[in-house]
Amino acid sequence: MSLADLAEFPKDVYPVGRLDADSEGLLILTNDKTLTEKLLNPVHKHGRTYLVQVEGDISNEAMEKLRTGVSIRIKKEKHITAPAVADIVVPPNWLPERDPPVRYRANLTTSWVQLTLIEGKNRQVRRMTAAVGFPTLRLVRSAIEGLSVKDVLPHSVAELRKDELMGKLF
């Protein structure tokens, strides 16, 4: 599904940030250049929270690495990620089944991790979980600062007033 499938947006409205084709969740669309700058400029260090289903029973050692910073490669260069808030969580009951579903194997266990990052490198979450030995199966951006995907139904658009949006973000 693409944005064009959801609604027709004015020509000057663009997504702030990105979700790759295999990811799902919260995406902010705006034509406000000030908001875009605040959300995209790394100096502002706003939090983005992801629910991540990983392959296997994630270890405490892997979780600690996620919390302290992981070595990943970005454009063939080594990058140490900023410390993340990382917790093992139960699969959220509000999250609908993925369409298409994540590959299922009866003998494969999975874990759910909630990660909050303040940086946004290309495919960073996927690279981080792979680097600690637990590849990502499903990735959902669940929140940007105080704005939560739980406030919006799947495959829908919620229009927020500027003051309402700014109150949740900053």
Question: Would you mind describing this structure in some detail?
Answer:
The chain has 170 residues and is α+β, with helices and mostly antiparallel strands. It has a single domain, classed as Alpha-Beta Plaits. It has five helices and ten strands; from the N terminus they run H-E-E-E-H-E-H-E-E-E-E-H-E-E-H. Strands 2, 4, 7, 8, 9 and 10 form a six-stranded mixed β-sheet that branches. Strand 5 (71-74) and strand 6 (77-80) form a beta hairpin. The mean pLDDT is 89.
List keywords for this structure.
10 strands; 6-stranded mixed beta sheet; Alpha-Beta Plaits; alpha+beta; 170 residues
Task: Summarize the structure in short.
By secondary structure, the protein is an alpha+beta fold. The chain is built from five helices and ten strands. Strands 2, 4, 7, 8, 9 and 10 form a six-stranded mixed β-sheet that branches. It has a two-stranded antiparallel ribbon with strand order 1-3. It has a two-stranded antiparallel sheet with strand order 5-6.
